[in-house]
Amino acid sequence: MQEDFRLIVDLVSVFGVAACGGLVAALLRQPVLLGYLIGGMVIGPTGLGLIKELIQVETLAQFGVAFLLFALGVEFSLNELKKVQAIALGGGAAQMILTILATVAVCGLTGAWGTLPAKGVFLGGILSLSSTAVVLKCLMERNETETLHGQVMLGILVVQDLALGLMLAVLPALHQPGEAIAIAVLTALVRIGLFAAGAVAAGIWLIPPLLRLLARTESQELFLLGVVALCLGIALLTEYLGLSIEMGAFVAGLMISEVEYADQTLTYVESIRDIFASLFFASIGMLIDPVFLWNNLELILGLVALVFVGKFVIITPLVKLFRYPLKTALIAGLGLAQIGEFSFVLASEGQALGLVSRQIYLLILGTTAVTLVITPFVLRLVPIVFDWLESMPWLKPYFGEGKALEVAADIPLKDHVVVCGYGRVGRNLVKLLQQHNLPVVVIDQLESRVQQLRDAKIPYVYGNCVSFHVLETAGVSNARSMAIALPDAMSTRVCLKRALELFPDLNVVVRAERNRHIESLYQLGAREVVQPEFEASLEMTTYILTDLGLSREVVQREMQQIRDRHYLDLRPEQSPSEVSRNLQQVSQEMNSRWYPLPSGSPLIGMTLEEADMRYLIGVSLMAIRRAGGEELDYPDTSTRLEEGDRLLVVGSNDELAALDEFALGKAAVPGANTACQWIQVNTESPMVDKTLGELDLHNQYGVQVQAIRRDGKFIRLPDKSTDLQVRDQMLLCGSLSSLDQLQKLLDTTTEEPLSIPVIKAGEAEALKDFLPMDSLLD
């Protein structure tokens, strides 16, 4: 009874410290699992020593990784596995073999652990495993499980988890002759084959009717109990067969993923998964000995660096060899460079079999623990680093997402709608647009979705939406509108920013995954931001109010006013510090800096609508810090710029340099009688292949070519030798009459549509003399 009570106390302590550690990590804008790891280290045997029943706690913690992999299997599905089966099976197996061979070679050359190759194989097996739990948790927190690099990493991790059972089966035979090792491998493969055959049969004939029977009871408790029993039962079976609990849990999830109750299962299991996952990560933290780490800090840091570099060098070329973009290969290489948590299991078995000494065992634990701790930081820094690298012109061709992998033969090239992402939202959007006979081009980078587009004969571009080349291939510069429905916030922001760099007048509607993303998307130039949960609330309210007798027109007008206010009436109230933290995170993930507004700048006294910096030079203003210390986050268009302001701006390096010239008055600033307008150079334009000196637009028409956008590059204040190319976007500044005269000239020489400038309120009256009023209304 005393031992049972001690276990309860230990569990309460672990959950309590995990909650505290996770809370501190969340407040510091760090991954919560980092807080779990550190919390476990604090109360573990080598920390404060509060946990007495360590073995029992570690046993219960195995539920955490089991439920993590079970949920992954439910969410991943067999169809998802097929998309990355080549890199998962071929690349995953090759990565493990190469890691083991490299480790054996290094041990042999350095004389480490004597001359026994078995020890090198054992260490190579440990190093070849990456952390499914940590990588999966990081991808889920960033909503990147459906991205291309996320799918690649998860596919490789699944193969590693499947290989764990094979490693555990071979481990006892490493000291024996080669025949014994071959028999152990063959026996393990036979077990895996039999289990796979049984799992397929059960997934077809047993699991679906069982879940339907549970669902017919309409009892959430029974359904959840049945699913948990199924998960743990199959996991126990695989353990009995000499494989691994993790493998069984993942296969159990895959079996359910093909049944219509998969989403319901995932919803019920998520809470249990998160609770036991915190226990699992805290138990890993308990294995970390801070005193040993400190006493051997230099050696462990050297081993960590060696592991990260070695696995990165092995994984990155392998992913690239399977024809994935370089950026995807690099992210996968960095994301899988750690040692996995299941290496603890292998290391413990190796110590029991005499393959490693206590000292080596502690070095393995310390190195593994450090790689697990720094992995969340690496995955968080990766997008920032690549965004910085892509901003360098000489590196951009190598680190960009590259060209489209495949393009449908019949994509429309003008007056179409570009849809980024063919998930559930994108699929429904395309269906509704086609019902109105609107031409559509879809961009997606997942093979399964592209295959759906092929089957449905929908024009598509197979590639990454954040790539300039892919956006240009989809005809963004000639599109009527664009919708972005991507799964992760970072890709959404980058896609929006780059689409507007290609076509500043583009009408872009964006889906915001969370309400804290709404304002940043508006600041980056989205014409409309849709938040699914808020939209569901508005539509349900509209139905109820009209059903109660209120005028539909009045109700819809009220709902639209809420949308026009960016859902402020529905959003939970945030403190200024919370808004500032969200803004800081967005700015860190993109190329940004604080810019001090020069004294005497012509922008001083202008409203943000009048300055129109995003339209004219491409930078997005995220915040203003006044001279008196007041900070305005996400300022609206009526905000006036004042002397001493510091501006937090987001943009490419060229755009930020253009801001300096713009603020100093070196570039034209719209005034009472002048305006700036982007005009595209089309195929039949008389300007094609002519230099600005030959055209002499300043003397001929009184306009200045202030900038040119070409292939995603911002060319500021181009000189007379600059030649114009097809699809160049020219920013022309001058009087309204001069711009109108030049546009009429271009209208008579090409049938291609020209971009119409955004008309400011103060300019509309002046334009009446030059353009028909109905054209303004259109």
TrEMBL record:
PROSITE patterns tied to this protein: RCK_C, RCK_N
UniProt-listed Gene3D superfamilies: 1.20.1530.20, NAD(P)-binding Rossmann-like Domain (3.40.50.720), Regulator of K+ conductance, C-terminal domain (3.30.70.1450)
Location(s), subcellular: Membrane
Entry membrane topology: Multi-pass membrane protein
Domain RCK N-terminal, chain residue ranges per copy: 414-531
GO molecular function: potassium:proton antiporter activity
InterPro entries (UniProt xref): Cation/H_exchanger_TM, KEA4/5/6-like, Na+/solute_symporter_sf, NAD(P)-bd_dom_sf, RCK_C, RCK_C_sf, RCK_N
Keyword Membrane in annotation: yes
Cited Pfam families: Na_H_Exchanger, TrkA_C, TrkA_N
PANTHER family referenced in this protein's UniProt entry, alphabetically: POTASSIUM/PROTON ANTIPORTER-RELATED (PTHR16254), TRANSMEMBRANE AND COILED-COIL DOMAIN-CONTAINING PROTEIN 3 (PTHR16254:SF14)
Protein known as: Cation:proton antiporter
